[in-house]
Each structure stands twice: as C-alpha cells, then as structure tokens.
Write a sequence for this structure.
C-alpha cells in the first residue's frame, strides 16, 4: 500500500520482540527456514505487517502447527493482514487521505487452519460448513486478522507510517 508522501516504518528485531514476544533467536531461525523475509546480508528490519505475521506464527506454533502449515497460513494471510495493519495505523495516526475507506467498513477477515489446510475467509460459519464431512474438526486454529493488527498498531514504538524524506539535492 502506498500513501503519497509517506512510507512504512521498519523495526529492529529487538523492537519486534517487544511487540510480538518472538525472541530474536527464533526470528533468525524463522528467516533461515523461509518463514520471514531474508535480510539480504544486512541488518534485519521488519514492517508492521511482518510483526503481525510473527504474532500469528507464534500463536500457531504454540498450538502445535508445523512450519509447512505456518508458511501456508502466512501465504494465505499476507495481503489481508498487511491491509489491516496499514489501514488501522493510517486511521490511528489520523492522517487524512481522499477516498480512503473508513476502517469500520472493512470486511472481517479470518485465517482458519483446519484438517491440514489454511483458509482465508470472511465467514467462519460458511467455511466450517464447506468442509468435507470426514474432515477432522476437533482441532481448528482461527485467527482474527483485525485483532492481530490492532495489537501490533497499538504496541509499535513508532508510528507505522512516517513522512517520506524529501530528496536532498546538491547545490
């Protein structure tokens, strides 16, 4: 998402740990496994949407989801989660923009992991009704993307959006 004259802030691994509870060593391990973006040889930096992904991964891992399912889940959640985080942050910082959709009008979005599949949905009832009759429904991981986004936006040490630096020209 691009906002004129604003850019997304980035956060250090230590700041990510404070916001998400995912320690720096685990972040490094997840980068090596391809669950988080690579640093390209430099210092690791994360955007707020990636902090939200870390929170979901941590909770999924705590519930017993394996790395492959976590990666599938994040692939399913990446775009709607980024939209929630960036839009909530935009609204929180009261930055005016013409034509913006009010946050309270965004459709709900959930990530559901059930029967070994990750599903992005706006309707939980419809999702569970659509499962095959023989699907194991005893264990389901359901994540409300708006709640995760609200947590991240509320805990980051600096605003998610910051004014873009104006290009400096040599005289």
């Amino acid at each position: 998402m691009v906002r004129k004259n604003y850019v997304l802030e980035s956060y250090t691994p230590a700041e990510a740990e404070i916001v998400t509870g995912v320690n720096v060593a685990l972040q490094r391990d997840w980068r090596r496994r391809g669950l988080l973006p690579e640093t390209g040889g430099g210092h690791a930096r994360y955007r707020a949407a990636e902090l939200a992904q870390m929170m979901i991964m941590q909770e999924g891992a705590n519930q017993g989801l394996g790395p492959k399912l976590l990666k599938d889940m994040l692939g399913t959640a990446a775009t709607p989660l980024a939209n929630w985080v960036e839009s909530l942050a935009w609204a929180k910082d009261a930055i005016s923009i013409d034509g913006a959709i009010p946050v309270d009008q965004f459709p709900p979005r959930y990530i559901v992991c059930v029967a070994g599949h990750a599903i992005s949905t706006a309707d939980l009832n419809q999702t569970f009704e659509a499962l095959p009759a023989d699907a194991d429904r005893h264990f389901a991981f359901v994540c409300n993307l708006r709640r995760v986004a609200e947590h991240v936006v509320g805990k980051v040490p600096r605003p998610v959006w910051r004014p873009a630096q104006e290009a400096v020209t040599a005289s």
About this structure: The two ends are 33 Å apart (CA to CA). The first helix runs from residue 13 to 20.
